[in-house]
Every structure is written in C-alpha cells, then in structure tokens.
C-alpha cells in the first residue's frame, strides 16, 4: 500500500514586530518532499488555519535557496498548493503513516497551541506512526500530550533549532521564547550537534527530529526508515 505523509506548514508571516517578516523555510519542505516523492509516498500540506502559507525571505537567498526550492517556486502547481493548504479538521489521522513539522521562525507562533494539530499528532503517534520535525518544527510538539496526559516529548531523545543558533542568526531578540528551553522543561532529552548549523538528526523510536534547515533531507530519510521499519513489524 502507498504510504502517506502529512507536512505541517505555517500561516504566520511576521514576528511580534510586523516589520520583521518570516514564514515557511521553503527548503525544509522541499528537501523532505523530494525524498518522500522518490519513495512514492503520497503527500499532503496542512496548516493550523488552512489556506495560504507565507515564505521566509531569508530562505529564498543563497545558500538556502537551492535546486529543490527553486524548482518548487518555478512550479505553478506546487506554489498553488501553498495557497490552498487544508486545515486540521479536514485531516483523518488514521490515513497517514507519518507527520512532518516544517520550520521557519513563524511556526513558533501558530504550531504550539493548535489543538487540531495536537489531535492529529497524538493519533498518529499512539497508533505507532512516525512523528517528525525539523528545525523550529519541534515547536509543534511542545504542548502535545498523549492520552495519559503526559507530554509526547517527555523522556524522549530529540533535537531542534538550538538557542545558540538563534543567537548566531541574530534573531534571539525577536523570537517569542526559547524553544530549546521549553523542550527541556517538558522533559525532552534535548540533543544538538557539536557545531551549529550542521546536519543533525535524532531518532527515538517513532519520533524523528532534525536540528536545523540543513538537516531536512537527512531527517526525511530517517522518517522513511522509521515508516518502513513499522511496515516490516506490521507484516511480521
């Protein structure tokens, strides 16, 4: 059977200060999309409110703006998808093998408190599906609780955009909170690479997380491994 992945993208276009724009970090979507496409997976875009997805301007500049991102922007069909994402209430969690939270600082605002996304994530996770995120995407996992009331990330090894990287990116004064700190407060066993901005992925069972934009491709590959591993277990 064809496997299905749900990509989560943002609807937010700026920080608290409207003069500072942000949005989806496009390559975090396109790198993963390309990997899943190569494996024949069906893919869907969902956002907290449904509808249009703004793009992070910095992600559209070299070296962040690479072949897959350019190809997406030059494809009218793909760009139309970013104008017409579905809302969580239209998603049947049982139809998906994995959920993948993309990043960009915008997600810090609309991912954490989306009850619809939390419901989908919990359903996929507790059914044994794969929950994954890259970069700031892990903000979508910060407030997600399991059926027993515990945080999904409590006691789990994981990673995501580090506070050191926020400082080096010079946005530490703009972001609404320290995501790394919040993950630790929720019991996550947070890890990061020895050097900032290098690819780093952590897999803990059916939880797969990547640290930064450069980790998107590697994260997607680990998601495939986890999905295929779950399939093997089901068949066994």
Structure, described:
The chain is of the alpha/beta class. Helix content is 32%, strand content 13%. The protein contains eight helices and eight strands, in the order βαβααβααββααβββα. Strand 7 and strand 8 form a beta hairpin. Helix 1 packs parallel to helix 8. The model has no long low-confidence stretch (mean pLDDT 96).
Chain-wise SSE layout:
Layout: E1 4-8, H1 26-38, E2 42-46, H2 67-73, H3 76-81, E3 98-101, H4 107-110, H5 115-126, E4 130-134, E5 157-158, H6 163-168, H7 179-185, E6 189-190, E7 201-204, E8 207-210, H8 216-235
Parallel strand pairs: 1-2, 1-3, 3-4, 4-8, 5-6
Antiparallel strand pairs: 7-8
Highlighted features:
single chain, alpha/beta, six-stranded mixed β-sheet, two-stranded parallel ribbon, 8 helices, globular
Enumerate how many helices there are, as a single number: 8
- Indicate the mean pLDDT: 96
* Main sheet attributes: strand count, strand direction, barrel closure: 6 strands, mixed
Alpha-carbon distance between the termini?
A: 16 Å
Explain briefly what this protein structure is.
By secondary structure, the protein is an alpha/beta fold.
């Amino acid at each position: 059977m064809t496997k299905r992945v749900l990509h989560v993208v943002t609807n937010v276009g700026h920080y608290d200060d409207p003069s500072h724009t942000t949005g989806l970090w496009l390559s975090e979507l396109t790198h993963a999309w390309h990997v899943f496409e190569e494996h024949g997976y069906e893919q869907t875009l969902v956002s907290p409110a449904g509808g249009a997805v703004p793009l992070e301007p910095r992600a559209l500049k070299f070296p962040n703006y690479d072949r897959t991102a350019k190809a997406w922007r030059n494809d009218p069909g793909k760009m139309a998808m970013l104008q017409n994402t579905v809302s969580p209430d239209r998603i049947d969690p049982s139809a998906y093998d994995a959920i993948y939270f993309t990043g960009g600082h915008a997600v810090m605002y609309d991912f954490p408190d989306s009850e619809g996304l939390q419901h989908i994530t919990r359903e996929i996770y507790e059914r044994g599906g794969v929950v994954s995120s890259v970069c700031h995407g892990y903000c979508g996992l910060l407030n997600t609780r399991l059926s027993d009331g515990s945080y999904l990330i409590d006691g789990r090894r994981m990673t995501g955009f580090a506070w050191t990287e926020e400082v080096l990116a010079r946005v530490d004064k703009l972001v609404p909170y320290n995501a790394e700190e919040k993950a630790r407060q929720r019991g996550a066993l947070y890890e990061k690479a020895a050097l900032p901005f290098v690819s780093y992925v952590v897999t803990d069972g059916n939880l797969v997380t990547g640290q930064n934009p450069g980790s998107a491709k590697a994260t997607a590959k680990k998601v495939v491994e986890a999905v295929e591993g779950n399939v093997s277990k089901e068949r066994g």
